[in-house]
Amino acid sequence: MKIIYFFYGWIIIMIIASLVPLIVYACTFDGGISTEPVEWSAFGSIMGAVSGSLAFVIATTGILVNKHESNKSRQNDLFFKLLDLHLKKVDAVVIGDKSGYEAFKFFAEKANKYLLIHLALQRLKKAEESREIIYELITREEVLKTVSKIDSLDRIKIKDYQSFFTFLDQTKFEEWKNWINNYVQSLGVDDKRKALAEVYRQIYTEDGHLLGQYFRNMYYTMKTFDDFDISDEKKEYYGKLFRAQLGKSELALGLFNAVWKRSGEEMVDLLLRYKILDDIYSHDVILFTGLDTEQAYELTEKILENYIESCKNPQPVNG
After folding, report:
1. Cβ atoms of 254 and 246 closer than 8 Å
2. CA atoms of 248 and 304, how far apart (whole Å)
3. Residue 143 and residue 164: Cα distance in Å, rounded?
4. What is the pLDDT of residues 9-24, one digit of tens each?
5. What tens digit of pLDDT does each residue of 184-196 get?
């Protein structure tokens, strides 16, 4: 695009330059017309060179404009092919009798339940309630039934959540969510990001063969239109179109995926640049309990920015 503007500038320069011989001629002959053939021949040579150069620039610019318009058309076609591919990737995600958006709803709810259990365990380890109250809370209705002693809390790993998360029905989910709400609000952005990452690492261990390709396709879709030779406004428009294809479960799961170790700084930068997670629903991730949609995205931005910062300043590994 910049090259085309450059040649447009040259056209203007050449037009102005073509007027110079006329001005010089007029000044030389005091505005009169020469009757000498030699003088007309010299003048014609000058004008021929100028007009030839001008014709070359115009022809070259025309070729470049046509090429640019052709590239724009190809890029536009490619973008919509990528959108079509995205929808096919969604439909290709199957778990049991669920597929497409229903499958993503299952995975998003699973991730959110895992996150609730994970945060509840952290809350229990720091709880001020008596040991009897804690013991009753973690053993009722067989939830966390693998715990036989309070000391066993430290031995519960995220990989164990699969064995009991089905006991966490909607009623119990709301009870636990209310119980840990103050604890969740007390967590800093870094702790919230780490909780999401720890949970998604287990989700990926269990279901990465189903979800990995989907999120790689999401990255390459964003990367492709971000590399297009178009204006920032057009890229932003493509970003909005792409975001419009994402269901709320994809957005929720996308946040979990974005902040774990195998996501990548460039992936998160694209999510932030095009506000792909802008419409994330506050009730789809328990870290957003009590927030409206706008506040939920503000926290999402902080979590994503925290991830980028953690990539630039990785913490040393002990041991």
Report:
1. yes
2. 18
3. 6
4. 656 666 666 666 666 6
5. 889 999 999 999 9
